[in-house]
Amino acid sequence: MLRFAILSAGNIARRMARTLDGLRDELIPYAVGASDPARAEAMMHEYHFETCYGSYDALLRDPQIDAVYIGLIHPLHAQWVERALAAGKHVLCEKPLTLSADCAERLFALARRQNRVLAEAMWTRTLPFADALHSTLNTPALGKIRSMHFALGANMQDIPRIARPELGGGVLMDIGVYALTLADLAVQSAPHTVSGSCIKGCGGTDLADSICLTYPGGIQATILVEGRCAVPDCAQIFCENGTVALHGPIWSPESITLQLGETVREVPFADAAALPGAGFEYEVRAFAKAVQQGISECPALCSADSLRVLRTADSLLRTWNIPYPPESCALT
Which of 89, 95, 144, 289 is catalytic? Predict the structure, then answer.
């Protein structure tokens, strides 16, 4: 079985640790690494990992580790993905994989050269609703997709990871990427045009975004991402003859309804939110299966999908002149 390690002891890393602890019939929760040795040891004991390290480099030197999950802040992803791949580890990195598509592309190329699997942990793509959404959109009676609308938000403006550019802040890369991912899941192609505006906070990061995307075939998507106040999650796909609506959190929809004329029906799928790991099991299993099969990429979390979304985000961030720090991605 694969020996998994977690690089980080923050909140998202602890959620992954809980997930791995619940999957020990399928893999080995092996090591935790953190910059604070006490936090690494505490997380090791809480989630029953076998060992821990008080530095990230020390963890990567352990030859027993097969795969590493990286749950650091956004600007540190590129640096530690690169080091983990160079150390011969398979890597599952929390979203966004990087803060630029060019850097992500170089990392995927390194993974191929190293014969290792690299995947962005965009867990939304692996949840049961995704297959149900594809099947529903292929319903002949619906006709072609014409327009999509997504909205989400919360009062997040005082949270450091949102307010501070040196932490890779802003609502687009924190929660807006989920809406971009849903749009990508629906059309499975890159947008022709990308436009939008944002409201910036005092630190220069985006606190509210209004986005318009146009896709092949005349499909349009509008996206509202709000970090200054609560916005009920909304995900609607309007087709020639009906509407598909996703209900619940955008990153983990709880139900889908299909409306054709006066007829409304619910589309069934497994409830990921009811599982012990709150849905992270799906991405872990998809990633582990790719590693065990010896294939170059995880099909459910492939590089092409990640790069399409990152390129869209890139275009918006360049337009808005968001002041992110340079990523430590030394690859050429």
Answer: 95
For the question of residue 95 being annotated catalytic, the response is yes
pTM tops 0.90:
yes
Q: At what angle do helices 128-137 and 177-187 cross, to 10 degrees?
A: 40
Total residue count of the chain as it appears in this document: 332
Q: Which residues contact 234 (CB under 8 A, 6 or more apart)?
A: 149, 150, 151, 152
Q: Following DSSP, what letter does each residue of 90-130 receive, concatenated? A: EEEEESSS-SSHHHHHHHHHHHHHHT--EEEE-GGGGSHHH
Compute φ and ψ for 149, nearest 5 degrees: -140, 130
Q: What is the CA radius of gyration of the chain?
A: 20
For residue 3 the two structure tokens come to 């020996």
| 297-327 per-position pLDDT tens digit | 999 999 999 999 999 999 999 999 998 887 7
Instruction: Give the separation between CA 13 and CA 331, rounded to whole angstroms.
Output: 26
